[in-house]
Amino acid sequence: MATAVDPTIELTCLQLEDTKKRMDAAKSKHKTRSHLGPTARRRWKIACTILTWVVLLSLTAFTAWLYLRVENLRTEKGQLQSKVVDDAKTMVNLQIRTNRLSNQKDELAKRVTDGICEIEKLQNATKLLKTQLDSVSSQLNVQDGRLRMVQDRLSFIGGCYDCVVRDCSDVRTRNVLSGIYPIWPKNFTNALYVYCDMGPSGGGWTVLQRRLDGSVNFYRNWTEYKKGFGDLGGEFWLGMDAIYLLLSQNAYRLRVDMEDWEGNKAYAEYSSIQLDTERNNYRIRLGTFSGNAGDSIAGTNATMDYFTRNLNNMQFSTRDRDNDGSSRNCALLFKGGWWYNDCYNANLNGIYYRGGNYTDAVQDGIEWSTWKGWRYSLKSVSMKIRPANFVP
Description:
By secondary structure, the chain is α+β, with helices and mostly antiparallel strands. The chain folds into two domains: 45-163; 165-387, Gamma Fibrinogen, Chain A, domain 1. Helices cover 45% and strands 15% of the residues. It has helices at residues 7-34, 38-158, 168-172, 222-227, 240-247, 330-334, 369-372, and strands at 179-183, 192-197, 205-211, 229-230, 236-237, 252-259, 265-275, 284-286, 289-291, 346-347, 367-368, 380-387. The strands form two sheets. Strands 1, 2, 3, 4, 5, 6, 7, 8, 9 and 12 form a ten-stranded antiparallel β-sheet that branches. Strands 10-11 form a two-stranded antiparallel ribbon. β1 (179-183) and β2 (192-197) form a beta hairpin. It comes from Branchiostoma lanceolatum.
């Protein structure tokens, strides 16, 4: 069995061997130095001293340089820190100014947008005003023309101070042009302006009602039909009071002229026409019929024998004053003021439908059934009177 070697013993031997080597090296060095003389050793010492001082001075200079460099770096650091702070403040100020300028830009943009909108509104308003001005100017020109025409006719009539101009038949003896004229009916305090038709059957007709283009609404109340409405140069209703005063001063005949949408014309005449006062709701009475349009006012409805639509001797009705012979309110149902019975064969103040035939549920057009049948709205119609004894 082999005997184990203690490692500590081996380490001790190695340490002893290393120590021996060091001692031998020291002895060898000492021997080398011991071979130098005193002068050489002195020189060697001086050289070592000088070298030491050189090293120390170099280290001192380097240390001083390092110190100065550090101080310079500290100074530069402080300057840089101050600059960074200043730059940061500048950045903050710039950001504030940028935000302010951005807000100002947005506000200016909004003002510009609002200004553009205002300009557009002003432009639109200007265009509208120009259109209205043109319209008013056109209307003034029309009225000016009418005024000149009336002035000419007044000057013509005014030359006859002892003349009596009661209706358009009196105007006809002095002027053959159709148009608007002043007349002075009996019991009428001021001049009454009327439209005189100098065309059919020798002229001299005073027009009571006219439909031309649907520009005037005839679905009116009692007061409006009583006073009259519309434009004498276009569509109009002369007014029940004025019509009554005209008819009360003489014996008159009634003529109704009409035209369809194909350009065909027809007429109906009645040898006499009388009108009661408002107290009797302007009851109408008509004489003998003549003409080529058929009798839709005084004639009866032969197809319905259990009631009549004869409008003769009927009272005038409006939507707010029902005087007809029906259980219904005919004026309200058929949308016009008229001498309704139950209800009508003629409805000259009804709704203006373009094109003739219409398909509305209510039969409320401008109709003269004995000429064009039912549900055919006439293109134009006019009611006019002239003294029964008038000779062209």
